[in-house]
Amino acid sequence: xxxxxxxxSYFMTTFNKLPYLKIVVGELIKNRQDDEEIIIVDGGSxxxxxxxxxxxxxxxxxxxxxxxxxxxESHGNxxxxxxxxxxxxxxxxxxxxxxxEGIRECKNxxxxxxxxxxxxxxxxxxxxxxxxxxVSHIPHFEKWLSRKIPFSFYGPGLMFRRSSIPxxxxxxxxxRFSDSEFIHRATSLPVKIAWFKKPLFVHLxxxxxxxxxxLRRKKLEIEMHELYTRIATGxxxxxxxxxxxxxxxxxxxxxxxxxxxSKSKKSDYETHDFKALYYLHYQYLMENFxxxxxxxxxxxxxxxxxKN
Length: 308
Hints:
- The protein is α/β, with parallel strands linked by helices.
- It has one domain (about 10-290): Spore Coat Polysaccharide Biosynthesis Protein SpsA, Chain A (Alpha-Beta Complex).
- The chain is built from 12 helices and 12 strands.
- Strands 3-2-1-4-9-6-10-12 form an 8-stranded mixed sheet, sandwiched between helices. Strands 5-11-7-8 form a 4-stranded mixed sheet, sandwiched between helices.
- The protein is globular, with a radius of gyration of 19 Å.
- Mean pLDDT is about 85; it is low at about 240-250, about 255-260 and about 305-308.
């Protein structure tokens, strides 16, 4: 029997997050289309995640599955990418909320525009647990368009083309904030990027997030971003990071996520009922998505000059 063409590969890594995983993967399975596949790589969980995922794989509810000890999220992402068959790759996390209707819009757009390497999108952050804040990277995307200044955005907003991997490279296994480094590096390369303006996700910071596990490394890894900016533009990124401090909302979010001196405590983000929190934020996400009025939700302008 002739195999069906795969247009989109969803890929996810996980490690000892079963209560979160059951909700997120359950929604993913319900929303998967016939030309899509689900790839989940487990890092050797001991909480029952691997056994639960193996059952889903045996029932073909997830199409590819691997479980083995690894060296962190980047290593797991690379294992998943090498298993993928889709024309497009969509990274997912095991504890965030996703707008699958929006993902399908992004998928169809990229299938129609085969020259695009990367598509980015914004979403919400559960700043101070209860308060959702829309974090917009469009100003940074526009600076990339006009001045080729590399930038990072939240990993849940990322979709990229499998055939672009020889240009983009794989994830860097030396870093902990893998999406941030991958995206900042990718935007320093001669790539073509489009942007989706509707909200695509809610990033749910929780007590098990890498945000808290590896917060001390964030400042060190941002120094790599400075290097990518110098390579791409010949200029320092210091002024760019300084200017961000004058935006009140971004200042709050960046201080929370990236500053070792942040007063936010891990205990503030203990999640006692993830299911209720997930669907509360899902409803908010979809209400705002459906209320978006712009007839053209995509920004795509070819940069006038691509530096070699």
